[in-house]
Amino acid sequence: MWEIITTSLPQLIVAGIKYTVPLSLISFALGLILALITALVRISQKGKEFKIIKGIFNFYVWLFRSTPLLVQLFIVYFGLPYLVIPGILDEGIKLTPFVAGVITFSLNTGAYASETIRAAITSVPQGQWEAASSIGMTRSQTLRRIILPQAIYLSVPPLANSFISLVKDTSLAATITIVEMFEVSQQIAAENYQPLIMYSLVALIYAVFCSLLTIGQHYLEKHSHKHLTKTVGGA
């Protein structure tokens, strides 16, 4: 058993560094950008002509929050090549496994994180909007200078949880042939016929990764709480 572990562990760690970590970081970064845009659009109070745009973003959030991540991966990687539009997409949309994974995980993360950011923004007391307006600040200035800084720090704990969940969810990328840790464990298990050992080993590696991220999350929460206390106290 120890021989299997010592020979397999380096391969799993390399796969994690090469695919799992980049896939998680890139997808989360893109997802956060999309989440912020989505949240701002959905809380916007612009006129009737903006309702169509808000409706599109509302539909996007509903769609990705209402369907399984695994199904989303299959649609993007296996389904889009069959989206043939004569004269425009004669061969459909063919993506590499990694690109398909990044797109899917980013869209999924963006939908969930947008709700976190939107809730954080709306949780800031209405009085702060009114106070800023009374001194001549526009709504966009108030949002940028007063509301968003507070909302960001309020969002840290739930967003950190989202990132930890994303790291675990990247194991689903094995279904579209991305050679991340779980896929490598499956390949090795098919060779040595020791699935229990291999799957337990990869589970342990995920547990270590997530435990380290949890420690980082606690540090961020403490830092954000202190900063938020100073911000509110100073206000």
UniProtKB/TrEMBL annotation:
The chain crosses the membrane at residues 20-41, 62-85, 196-220. It is found in: Cell membrane. Residues 17-214 form the ABC transmembrane type-1 domain. GO terms for cellular component: ATP-binding cassette (ABC) transporter complex. InterPro entries: AA_ABC_transptr_permease_3TM (IPR010065), ArtM/GltK/GlnP/TcyL/YhdX-like (IPR043429), MetI-like (IPR000515), MetI-like_sf (IPR035906). Keywords: Amino-acid transport, Cell membrane, Membrane, Transmembrane, Transmembrane helix, Transport. It is a multi-pass membrane protein. One of its GO terms (molecular function) is L-cystine transmembrane transporter activity. Belongs to the binding-protein-dependent transport system permease family. This is ABC transporter, permease protein. PANTHER family: L-CYSTINE TRANSPORT SYSTEM PERMEASE PROTEIN TCYL, MEMBRANE COMPONENT OF AMINO ACID ABC TRANSPORTER.
